[in-house]
Structure formats: structure tokens, C-alpha cells
Amino acid sequence: MDAQQAEVRALEAEIAALRRACEEPRTAGEDNWRAQKSLREMYQSDSEGWASSKDLRSHLGHLESELIFLSTLTGISIRNYSMKTEVLTNTEKTEKSITKVLQRHRLSGNCQMITFQLEFQILEIQNKESLSSVITDLNIIMEPTEYSELSEFVSRAEERRDLLMFFRSLHFFVEWCEYRKRTFEHFKVGSEV
């Protein structure tokens, strides 16, 4: 029972933090940095306590339930995901204490009726004092749809290399399309009477 209460408190704290994050205006770069830092801290704290494969299975079940919750909340479902990591070697003597890691990510999914595929690269640069990450390349592939307005959101997100902007725009676009569809259905039914 204590474990469930602790999990509920942790989820409540996460929801409160997400609400604060949504309410505070900030730049896209700051959003990306905070999200990456938060995910990195969660991963490090979670991976320290695995004493057995049973703990790992339990953790995997917890992550799957969180993924289902997020998919229900946002309407975005991730079907496939892959990542390749490459450590870049430093050739200059001045950069010997700097570690650079290039991560290549590829994922596909859908948001209700819209299917998408993302390919992006993240360059992580770590020196003795800090760790910084930046998206160096973003390619968004969308299935052709009847919504030509969506291409504006996609091209703007690619141009700015902003994943958060893409997912937010996609979520709200689909939500408003659904509202629009229901409104037209309402008036269509009203005019037939």
C-alpha cells in the first residue's frame, strides 16, 4: 500500500510540475533543456535500484502503464522507436576533456487519424562542469491528409528543430479538427430537421 501511495504522490507531483510548465511562458530551447534534464534524472534514479530481473519487469510494467496514460491523455501513440548512439572522437588537444555523443532517433506513430514518422539527431556535449544537448537535425514525414494547414506546423517545427512544438501543434490541431467535425455534424443534423 505504501508503494502505491508513493507512486500516486510522485504522479501528482509530476502533474503539478507539468501544469506549472504549461502555464509559464518560456523559450523553446529552455523547454527542451528542462525536459531532457528531467528525463535524464528520472532514468538515472530509476536504474539505480534494480537488484533483480523481477525489479526490472516491475519497472517495465510501470513504464508501460505510464505510456498508456500519456497516449490516452495526449492522443499520440508511438508504434515504433529506435535509437543509435555514436561517441564522437575528439581530434584537437583542447577538446580532450569534452565528450560528444550523437544519438540518432527514429520513431513512428499516430495522433488519431494522422500518421507521422520522425527522424532526429541529438548531440550531447559533456565537459567537467556541464552537459548540454541540442537537436541537430529533424525530419518529419507525414502521411498525406486532407488537412493542408498541417504542413505549416510541420515545416515550422522542422525549421526550428523543435519536437515539443511539433507534438503540441499536432495534438491541438487534431483536437480542433475533432471539434470542427462535431460542430458541422451538429449543424447538419439541425438543418435536416
UniProtKB/TrEMBL annotation:
Pfam families: CENP-P. GO terms for cellular component: chromosome, centromeric region; nucleus. InterPro entries: CENP-P. One of its GO terms (biological process) is CENP-A containing chromatin assembly. This is Centromere protein P. It comes from Gulo gulo.
